[in-house]
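Quick one: Phage protein from Bifidobacterium olomucense, structure tokens please.
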Amino acid sequence: MKRIQGVEIQLTRREPTGLDDMNEPTFTALEPETIANAIVTDGTQANATETERPQGTDTAITVYLPRSWPWQSLKGARLTIDGTDYWVHGDPHPVRTNLTPTSHWPVGVQASTRKA
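--- reply ---
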């Protein structure tokens, strides 16, 4: 019996460092961290000619992070998968359940190659 096995990805989070001259928040990128056993899937299952991806210019993915990763805010984060950078949409949070087995992937992260 084969088990689901994820891939290794790089996660670069950002943290706010203050405000600029226009009173907009400024951020500093933190050191990238490696997350093992992440599940990467097509994000929309949409045809590349649909309005969500006009002319296929935006590659959307969904990444499921393993429970072993200690959740932190992903707002403005970048995922690097096989050398391609994807930017996280929104600020996804883990599903809060008591489901077993304990190694399931409770955080679904939508990201795309277009900077959010």
